[in-house]
Amino acid sequence: MRKALLLGFAAGLMLLASQAMANAYCAAPPTCTDNGGFIGSISTFDTNYISLLMSTNNGFDVLVDQDTVIGRTPHHIWADVTLGSASLSANIGVNFTGYDFYLGTKKINRTVEVSDLTLIKTDLNTGVSLSFAGSDNNISLTESTINFSSQDPVFSTSAPLTINALSGTNRFTSFEGNIDSLSTAINVSSGATLDFYLAGSLGSTGTPLYFRSAVTGLVDGGTLSFDRSNVRFNSSSFTFQNSATLSLSQSNTTATFDYLSLDNSQANLDNNTSLVATDATLSNATLSFNSGALFSADILRVTGDTTISGSESVGSGVDAGIGLFSANTTYTQNSSLSSFNRLYLYDGTDVEINDGTFTVHTVYADPHAATVADINVNSGGTQSITGGVHPSNRLVDITVANCGLLNVD
Prior knowledge:
Elements: E1 3-9, H1 17-22, E2 37-38, E3 49-56, E4 60-64, E5 80-84, E6 92-100, E7 105-106, E8 111-114, E9 116-120, E10 122-127, E11 129-132, E12 137-142, E13 145-147, E14 154-155, E15 161-167, E16 169-173, E17 178-179, E18 184-188, E19 193-197, E20 209-220, E21 223-227, E22 230-241, E23 245-249, E24 254-263, E25 266-269, E26 274-283, E27 286-289, E28 294-302, E29 306-310, E30 317-325, E31 330-333, E32 338-345, E33 350-353, E34 356-365, E35 373-377, E36 381-385, E37 396-400, E38 405-408
Parallel strand pairs: 1-3, 2-4, 3-5, 4-6, 5-9, 6-10, 8-11, 9-12, 10-13, 11-14, 12-15, 13-16, 15-18, 16-19, 17-20, 18-20, 19-21, 20-22, 21-23, 22-24, 23-25, 24-26, 25-27, 26-28, 27-29, 28-30, 29-31, 30-32, 31-33, 32-34, 33-35, 34-36, 35-37, 36-38
Antiparallel strand pairs: 6-7
């Protein structure tokens, strides 16, 4: 029978060296109950144990006095680690600290190998390098945080990585570097939040936290947020659905996606933040912009009714190279700004400009459309067409009503 090694810590205090030696390798698991201690004592030569569960009511410290390798005993149980418990009344703090056993010196560079890391109501401070070295690596978070401020984590390039935010508010802090796992999947469950805080570096010369391998993302009724962060995803797909939220806060925060889809979901951009996509799809989406907040895309597809609103200051709103508005969809600009180099309108497309400026260089319409596409410039709205309507397709009806403004250059 394969079992989990259970460590029930009573008070969250570090072991003395003599205590650690007395309990070395937990010779009789799972009866070993320490108050935290040296990683050498949180291990076993018994191969019947394949995972490790550590929980306490008050938090604990793990002094890492040796590097661990999950491919062999006595540290094989670290391949599957759970910190915390759903029964906790409040979050606990867990600290991993590099340590020299003989010199009694802390803050030594150490590496702890893991594969499956589960945090439940736990705030983990990694004072060591976490190396995800399994054949299928996973991080699962429930009301938990991981602070990577001391050393960046390492992920195997020959194994996939999955990050799951299961419930509650969860956060990565000071997450930096390039993530080169074989592939990466990021999942945020309904009602859960995954926040990237102080990830990457900001500014014009800032370096993003870069998920460079193929990324798939699914935010299903949850929230993915970025706070004072610069994060880039090499996404083959990244979908927000079922009233999910994409949130950017604090000046200079940037989130970049190769492929991004907002389906029946919303994006909220705080002052001077940037959402960037190579290819973005909006379907029944709502976008809100504060001053200086910009959503830029090389290709922007509108496949379902979409509404934007917010600041009309320069550098705010939507800026797309190519806009593809599907048949029988409505794009409503209640306020803010929209700019397209080339805008393609299909059968029955409706653009409602209620406020703010809607700028297009050239408008194209489907020459075979059964229904004319409509652009309605309403009171408070302004449309500027700098290149005109393409002469090969004139099936666009532009209506200016209630003191709206149309500029054609």
